[in-house]
Amino acid sequence: MTATNTQTAALEDLLAFQHETEALAGISGRLEWDQETMMPRGAAEQRGEEMAALSSILHARRTDPRIGEWLAATDGAELSQVDAAKLRHIRRTYDRTMKVPARLAAELARVTSISQGKWAEARAKDDFAAFAPVLAEVVRLRQEEGTALADGGDRYDALVDDYEPDMTAAQLEAMFGEMRPRLRALREKVLEKPAPEGLTGEFDEDKQMALAVKLARTFGYDLTRGRLDKSVHPFSSGSGSDVRITTRTSATDPFNCLYSTIHEVGHACYEQGINPDYALTPLGGGVSMGVHESQSRIYENQLGRSRAFTHWLYGQMTDTFGDLGLDGPDAFYAAVNRVRKDFIRTESDELQYNLHIMLRFDLERALISGDLAAADLESAWNERFEKDFGYAVPRASLGCLQDVHWSVGLFGYFPTYSLGNVYAGCLHATMRDALPSLDSDLAQGDTAAATAWLRENVQQHGGLYRPAEVITRACGAAPTAGPLLDYIEAKFSELYDL
Amino acid sequence: MTATNTQTAALEDLLAFQHETEALAGISGRLEWDQETMMPRGAAEQRGEEMAALSSILHARRTDPRIGEWLAATDGAELSQVDAAKLRHIRRTYDRTMKVPARLAAELARVTSISQGKWAEARAKDDFAAFAPVLAEVVRLRQEEGTALADGGDRYDALVDDYEPDMTAAQLEAMFGEMRPRLRALREKVLEKPAPEGLTGEFDEDKQMALAVKLARTFGYDLTRGRLDKSVHPFSSGSGSDVRITTRTSATDPFNCLYSTIHEVGHACYEQGINPDYALTPLGGGVSMGVHESQSRIYENQLGRSRAFTHWLYGQMTDTFGDLGLDGPDAFYAAVNRVRKDFIRTESDELQYNLHIMLRFDLERALISGDLAAADLESAWNERFEKDFGYAVPRASLGCLQDVHWSVGLFGYFPTYSLGNVYAGCLHATMRDALPSLDSDLAQGDTAAATAWLRENVQQHGGLYRPAEVITRACGAAPTAGPLLDYIEAKFSELYDL
User: Fold this and answer.
1) With contacts defined as CB-CB under 8 Å, which chain B residues touch A47?
2) Nearest to B57 among A57, A242, A280 (CB)
3) Among the record's GO biological process terms, what is one (chains A, B) (predicted)?
4) Which one of B50, B225, B227 has the shortest CB-CB distance to A27?
5) CB-CB contact of A440 with A308 (8 Å)
6) Which of B276, B296, B288, B240 is nearest to B89 (CA)?
7) Among residues A2, A3, A50, which one has the least CA distance to residue A28?
8) Main-chain dihedrals φ then ψ at residue A237, nearest 5 degrees
9) 3-state class of B294 per DSSP?
10) Angle at A134 between CA A133 and CA A135, to 5 degrees
11) Helices marked H in B229-376 — which ranges?
12) CA–CA distance, A141 with A107 (Å, rounded to integer)
């Protein structure tokens, strides 16, 4: 059985409408990039008006009743795999958008735009109490949204599903349950050892940027379809043939610039690597936050922080900056992977990073379920941090105010970072089997085989498969935390001589 | 009599709808800026799709039948001057847009996007014949559009009206008739004199840009609501609190960078100087191309190329680049204002510039009336050029292929450049009377009084008045070519010792 004429016409109309929506959404992303990189500071208010106008157009398109009619008209049609996947995405977005009352969507947009500012002020003053009331408001609205989306199911699951389709809190809990004891045990042993030396001194920031560009190229980022600029927080933006990344520089910490660049290059290469036939369709972007993060993490960590690659990078660094004051490439490798007692998630290492996420996962579930009141977040955070990390949080900016996420309503987002690490662990293990010369390539600064493997097995598919399916197809087995944990244990045991 | 409730409601709905349309149009401008400055070259096709989606949204809004209903509902309402002006603009745009069949608008967009590429190729090869067929197509479509817009009137007038409301070919012809003999007579005398020395040598391009930024600030450009970048062709883009400009650099010709900057600063200061209450309304942009050009020209020429200001600039140049190889500030003034036998409009001087425009005005009228076939343009151009300038055009890139305008369908646009010069002449004469210390200010690099006068008398009004009315209000008399011609004759007679 094939599609009838009516079905074919409905499909064509729906995809043409979607094409225009995707193009408009691309514009929205371009403006966000501009806002963080190029926009004059005096233009913020006007830009707010422009973005509001575009959001209103996009919202109207996403709730256009014709989408429901077209979808109904295609019901039962025999579709190609690609068209079926497109319709799956369109249906999913339409269903979710229609479930959220317009009043709630508008209220969320309004409150989160205010609360981000309140968060920034509160963080600057280490004053959680100043942030708590608006946080309570954001939580209340997201609870309401979660309930609307959940159809009687768990509302936190409904929020997670926004970032990682098919994922549930129960699955995440099982995953973290496997990870927690092994990571804590390893952390304890590592922290008993003397800490390796880090970098000292100052590093010219223009030279850092020049080296960042070189690293981006080294990892296969196509600068004819992208560009690298500076911003306060590094990010990757866009898809298809216009995928831009940013990084930042600090005179005393060149690793921040360089590894932020490699991380964003991972995100960007995913977007650049998607089958160009999917451009401006629902398949033309990364399939989920978890899979996206798997790409940024594997570029940054399993490749970028490997002994082989850091040996090559050591040569680049000394060529660029002269003597680094470290005792050769192995000391450099140790400096790159140094495990320290610290507070900040984004500055954490591969070993401790997931412990930061587990803390957030538990606290945000409690906020969304209502078990934890927003006003009590700071004390709950501090208590839990001390339990997990063994020392006290001295001030809110090093504790519960360190991340922007909750202020903008991102609940259910944090676990996708760890999921990305887990996916990266699986992909890395499979890739190592497939590429026996990986380390000798990396030691030459040659990532071509690795990035080609990722493009072939993950990136090209865009939104064609479901998130877990992407990893399962690439690895031949469903994703589990085992390979990541094995990798981390092996790496840090060797590095710290355990 | 005041507005009824129904009238008030219709007015509010119309202005709210228009506000969103203006915001979306602002986004379109931002993307065009990005395309010329930041966009990776591989993104062109995708950007085309994005722009097409946004254009289609904008076209749908501009032809939304509710506009007609709202306008009808406000008929007879007693309105404030500001609201009346807003409705005048909305009605004008709506009437014009509705007169052009959708099929024709789409065909024009399609053909002009192709023809611009053909023009660039033809210009690179000096091959007019390769461009003639697509030019004929563009002319045919614009003829058809002009007829649709003209309501039985003259179709060239209808096209001019797009750029300069209320202006007609007859008025332009009378203006050029007054200008031509005086400019030709002066030109002949000047060209008999020995040409002053120009700049020689090379000028660091980063230093040119740093000086360009300083000049932009000197002329009052607010960099907190704008920015200066490089592009192939200099332009100003945006309005309100986000008005960005570009310039270009050539190692051997720093005047190109610096005077392009001042020119674009004039455009940008107009947009930045508009009453902020008009932001995102039809009054929030410059009122016409002619008035816009009056601002860029008066900044660039009457102020920027004055003896007083060039004396200050000479100091800046020698501070920046060292010895210029010229015999002091008066020789520098002569170099800035040097009149040469040349072919290119954009590189022309104040004296000859309008002769270039007159040639284009007559030829494009003949193309639009049908008296001149597109295929015959090159020979007509060359014949006319030799008659006006006294020497032959050696190749098409120095002749009829030098400007992009006709390739993108801009017929009726060229005369607004001369109109801008004429308006600038009127404003300059009035401003000189009002500001007796202008030259001593300019000699210190101080443009504050001049730019404040322009802001007060021209810029702040945005679209509140009709174009000629803006000049009439500022100068106390309707605009004529007299003041510009008097100024040019006085300046070049003195400079060339006639």
Assistant:
1) 242
2) A57
3) proteolysis
4) B50
5) yes
6) B288
7) A50
8) -145, 135
9) helix
10) 90
11) 254-273, 289-297, 307-321, 328-336, 353-369
12) 8
* Rounded Cα distance, A353 and A348, in Å: 5
Give the residue among A290, A247, A238, A297 at the shortest CA–CA distance from A268. Answer: A238
Partner-chain contact A241 B42, CB within 8 Å: yes
Do the beta carbons of residue B54 and residue B28 sit within 8 Å? yes
Chain position carrying tokens 């209808």:
B158
Task: Say which of B22, B145, B164, B264 is annotated catalytic.
Answer: B264
Residue A238: name the closest of A213, A272, A215 by CA: A272
Cα–Cα distance between A384 and A178 in angstroms, integer?
A: 19
Best residue in B22, B34, B50, B206 for a mutation probing chain A (most A CBs within 10 Å): B50
Partners of residue A225 in chain B, C-beta under 8 Å: 40, 42-43
Whether A45 and chain B come into contact, CB under 8 Å, resolves to yes
Rounded Cα distance, A157 and A151, in Å: 11
- Give the residue carrying structure tokens 């970072």: A417
- Indicate yes or no: CB of A43 within 8 angstroms of CB of B280: no
- Per-residue pLDDT of A222-256, as tens digits, reads 999 999 999 999 999 999 999 999 999 999 999 99
pLDDT digits 0-9 by tens, B431-483? 999 999 999 999 999 999 999 999 999 999 999 999 999 999 999 999 999 99
**Beta pairing partners, A237:** A244
| Cα separation, A384 vs A386, whole angstroms | 5
**Amino acid at site B90:** I
Q: What is the mean pLDDT of chain A?
A: 96
The answer to whether B443 touches B69, Cβ cutoff 8 Å, is: no
What is d(CA B329, CA B327) in angstroms, rounded to the nearest whole number? Answer: 7
Q: Residue B77, Cβ neighbours under 10 Å: how many?
A: 18
Distance, CA of B183 to CA of B176 (rounded, Å): 10
Which chain A residues are closer than 8 Å to B19 by Cβ? Answer: 49, 53
CA A99 to mean position of chain CA atoms = 26
Question: Which token pair is A174?
Answer: 């099982």
Of the CA atoms within 13 Å of residue B325, those in its CB half-sphere come to 8
Architecture of domain A164-498: Orthogonal Bundle (1.10)
CA A465 from chain centre, in angstroms, equals 19
Facing residue for B241 by CB, picked from A20, A31, A43? A43
Is A202 annotated as contributing to ligand binding?
no
Strands, DSSP E only, in A168-322?
A: 228-230, 236-237, 244-247
pLDDT at B4: 83
Report the alpha-carbon distance of residue B317 to residue B310 in Å, rounded: 10
Contact B40 A279 (CB under 8 A): no
CA–CA separation, B362 and B357 (whole Å): 9
ipTM: 0.93
Q: What is the pLDDT of residue B1?
A: 47
**Calpha distance A184→A339 (Å, rounded):** 13
Residue ranges per structural domain of chain B: 5-163, 165-498
Look at residue B77 and tell me whether its pLDDT is greater than 50. yes
Which CATH architecture best describes the domain B165-498? Orthogonal Bundle (1.10)
> Tell me, what's the pLDDT at A2?
61
Tokens read off for B447: 């443009």
Between β-strands A236-237 and A244-247, what pairing exists: parallel, antiparallel or unpaired?
antiparallel
Question: Over 50: is that where the pLDDT of A1 sits?
Answer: no
Strand, coil or helix: what is B219?
A: coil
Between CA B261 and CA B380 the distance in angstroms is 34
Confidence of residue B2 (pLDDT cuts 50, 70, 90): low
Does the CA dihedral A166-A171-A172-A175 come out positive or negative? Answer: negative
Give the separation between CA B258 and CA B247, rounded to whole angstroms: 8
What tokens does A331 get?
A: 């000391």
Q: With an 8 Å Cβ cutoff, are B225 and A43 in contact?
A: yes
- Which amino acid, one-letter code, is at B233? H
